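Standup, Tuesday
Yesterday: got the pipeline producing structure tokens again.
Today: sanity-check two examples.
Blockers: none.

Example 1:
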Amino acid sequence: MAQNAKELIQETLQALKGLGNKTKELRCFIGLDGFVDEIIHVVDKRIDFDSYTRIETIAQLAERIGQAAGLSTNIELIPKQVKLGGNGPIMANALLSFGVRVTYVGCLGAPDIHPVFKELAEACETYSICDPGHTDALEFTDGKVMMGKIEILKEITWESILAKLPFEKLVDILAGSQLMGLLNWTMIPYMSDIWEKVLTEVFPRLQTAEKPLAFFDLCDPAKRNKEDIARAVELIQRFEKHCRVILGLNRKEASEIASVLELTLSDKPENVSLEEITKALAEKLNIYCVVVHPVAEAAAVIGEQYYRVDGPYTSDPKLTTGAGDNFNAGFCLGQLLGLSPAQCLITGTGTSGFYVRNMRSPKFDELVDFLELWSQNVGREF
């Protein structure tokens, strides 16, 4: 649906006014991963011991590595920040910033919570299964390269979850939650089995007046085989019987899922328009919502209607690792507060826009202020 961008942002601002206290009434169940993210810059030229120029783009790094084929090379990495990571913790942290109550289950440290998750654990009800994974996140102006150490995630199983969170307690928590997000399917080997258990053992026990939201983010499934991806997609579709299912994808993930589903498109999945691939995925999946968020825009199909917005793009992001998870939190916040689909795209892109500029998730009032600033600078970088 086409709409004047400034008008849409201002309508979103009006819709959000007075809803700040309502976030405290919302409850979400989020999991299941957890990473220590080490944010890293890659050195291009070393000027002296204290200063250097940075490799700015992924393409430049690829060229540097390619030139070393058949030879060798040395690439210097500069750690810039160590922070909490993983799709689940970052999305949970963003929801907490809005004032939403969160229960988190994942790998945050065992027997003690890892220091990077200390504030998260203090802010919400937390059940930690095992130690976190580790990610070296190489940051560039046009994206990021995530180098993950994920062996520990094999310990996330249905049995290990119930060892920390008894079944009856899990049922009670989900019965009181308006949003469930079991994230990072790609890196959690037994996630499909966990989803299956939730479908067959938990949801038959739930009695809720209104279908809750269930948010899924596969997290770059390219390395998984087609059979595994197809099973994951089929399980996500089955959740629609019990929930209003939202599948969130970045542009690369959308192409990968389109290939696995063998969608009929006008060109290769990576070459077609955002509108074509979003509509095609939504028609095939037949779930409540498919939302696709490239770097500079976002689109969704809800109720067979297509919506698209330009985001508050910046060519100089301070932090991109976690931007997608912040988009997901902002989009889901809009859904939980009853905003229109287009307004949810604004809260999603606004949340990620704030995050990449400020290196943290916005509080509810800060999101409102950022949308006000954006409305005054539509069409230009700010």
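Example 2:
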Amino acid sequence: MNIIITGASKGIGKAIAEQFAGGGHRLLLCARTESTLQQTADQFRQRFPQAEINTMAVDLSDKASVLKFGDWCLQFGATDILVNNTGVYFPGSIAEEPDDNLEKMMNTNLFSAYHLTRKLLPAMKEKNAGHIFNICSVASLHAYEGGGSYSISKFALDGFNKNLRHELKSSGIKVTGVYPGAVMTDSWGDFDNSAGRIMEASDVAIMVVAAVGLSKQAVVEEIVLRPQLGDL
């Protein structure tokens, strides 16, 4: 299978890529930082020699770069699985956050998924098959203190996901929204998770791979994961 994962060099994206690499698939991975992306790719090539790992460093906050990445992906054929994972998080409140917070996060968290999906969809529709995962957040589901423009961008991604699911029902293409709560990624800085208060990125990855394994007549529309003790 051709599996495209954005923001694949660390965190949830890397964990999802690791799960699929273990299955011996062809992975098309992107991230903003070339060195980190290549380090991840080298790790996977050593651990999963049966998988084919291809990479492209790209800034998906820029539409032209998104379309360039999409063209590169299409050289490998139609997409079987697309994971729109790339995103950025800047905490703040609507009244007091920096003036460009909303633009920065909408460009990365929403528009990257929108433009890449549109680029890849014609080939997927021609096959009448495929699965698109949009990595949203519990911040897509409710407002919270300090969410600000991040939560706005994730609400927007949820809207994109729901409309995409509706439009593609009869196409054979599945659409799944993924809504994780707190996950141990770089966003948490030096948070001490020794007590296991928040989830591991692998928890999300396991659920994504499980959703792929259903029969063609079934789709998991939403995956909501929270820490056992609830949201922070």
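Quick observation on example 2: Residues 101-127 form the longest helix (27 residues). The chain is about 40% helix and 15% strand.
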